[in-house]
Specification:
Layout: E1 2-10, E2 14-20, E3 25-26, E4 32-35, E5 37-39, E6 44-46, E7 54-55, E8 57-59, E9 62-66, E10 84-90, E11 100-112, E12 116-122, E13 162-170, E14 172-175, E15 180-182, E16 190-196, E17 199-200, E18 202-203, H1 211-216, E19 223-227, E20 232-235, E21 243-248, H2 253-256, H3 258-268, H4 278-287, E22 293-295, H5 302-312, E23 315-319, E24 325-329, E25 339-342, E26 346-350, E27 359-366, H6 384-391, E28 395-400, H7 403-407, E29 412-417, H8 423-438, E30 443-448, H9 452-456, E31 464-468, E32 478-488, E33 493-499
Parallel strand pairs: 2-4, 7-23, 18-19, 25-31, 27-29
Antiparallel strand pairs: 1-2, 1-10, 3-4, 5-9, 6-8, 6-32, 9-12, 10-11, 11-12, 13-21, 13-22, 14-15, 15-20, 16-17, 16-21, 19-20, 23-24, 26-30, 27-28, 30-33, 31-32, 32-33
Helix pairs in contact: 3-4, 3-5
Amino acid sequence: MILLQEFDYYDGSEKTLYLTYGAGYDNDAGIFYRPAIIQPANYSRDASLLQFGGRTSSSYGETTIANGDGYFDYLNGAYFEGREMRMYTLEDGQPYSSRVLVMRAIIDAVDWKMSEISFRLTDNSKSLDKPLQPNKYGGTNALPNGIDGTPDDIKGQSKPRIYGRISLMGGVEVNTSKLIFQVNDRAVAQIINVFDKGAYLTRDGSTYANQTAMETTAPASGAFKACPSIGCFRTGSTPFGAVSICVAESFVHTEISAAGVIKRVLDDMAISASAYSLQDFADLDGKNCGPVGVIVQDQETAWSVIERIAASVGAWVGFDALNVFRVARLDAPTGSYSVVIDDTVIDSITKPVPAVAPAWKMTLEGDTNYLVQDKNALAGIVPTARAAWFEAATRSASASDTSVKTIRINSQDYTASSVQVSVSQLQAEATRRLNLLKNRLDVVTVTLRDSPTSWLGQVDIGTEVLLQTRWYGYDAGRPMIVTGLRTNFLRNQLDLTLMG
């Protein structure tokens, strides 16, 4: 097998460095891959340490090339950082056109040593390690008009950004003269309810068409009127206490599901559609399409928001070997597999201690109240049930099986937070997680002796396989889910972590 790596760089113009491991390679089209690689890139990704979803750990390692003769010194001063590396494998004797792309990464840094050069590689994570909401209020109001605050109140404060449905939140008073509040720095589908000290404000007719109409006409006293196109509303009288709002940023279920919001966050961060898997989002929607509600915290990164959403529905997120963003739910094997791993391809096998303890009870806390108020601070007309809702930080759902404690003495009572807003969805997810963790769940690591290239097209994190081996009582075969993988192109091996 021939390893080919290409490194893009800038040196007066965009260029590409072509390298290979072992003997040099000429592709018969005027491109020569110089034999300089000492250590090729290797890819690893692991979700096995995640309890209930979140961001996978991943690494592309680094490529080290020989430079003892100083041949590559002409590249000192060239700009590699932020550009792409591509890695191909090619079977001996096969045409160049049959090469297989096995890795695509971003060049993070170049490390020069006396006789070697190392290219440190990474994925596209830096594009998501940035604030999702960078917009701040400028304090430019020319009172009595404007929705940007003044230098004396909210100048420099982050503007609100929400996704999905928020049951209760506070608004930002962006105009103190005209009692205008903002819940989102862009359009919302509907500002459903506004409360003053827990008491409903009356909706004053239809909505405002635009900011000018909102600034021109006040609603009636004790009422509110919304301007959904700019995420604002105006009250007709000065509030007596804390103002809380129930708002729907969208009513389209595929936009406010976990998959839908994650995809929209990627779009908001200018991640191109070719850099994520649309099928993954469709598959996740097929398993859990319930609504979520997210308020982006001050300076919170896109990665942080994505992780919170994914963990809420038990999904992992991360970039694959081709630097494509992937998302999928961590599920138990179903018995439906297309790949068999047996002793004919296993080089070694171990059975480590599972990273997650079994569960006898699972509780999910969601439908967050982002403006908790003591019931004693609410208006006297607020009913007891509504007062309890305003006083609670979340609503929760639990699933339990006390019989598990007898069999599995170390089983745990787990509690996790969620951005899901439907109690029925919280209940379904709590039950699913309990069923996953109360039963026997083996973790196995296997090293496959066949070429990584032959396997990478068949398995990835989330792939179901049948492990059939004489070891550990798996003679008849045990369905398992791939939760981790690591390539070793020099040794022509692939390591897999399996769960099931």
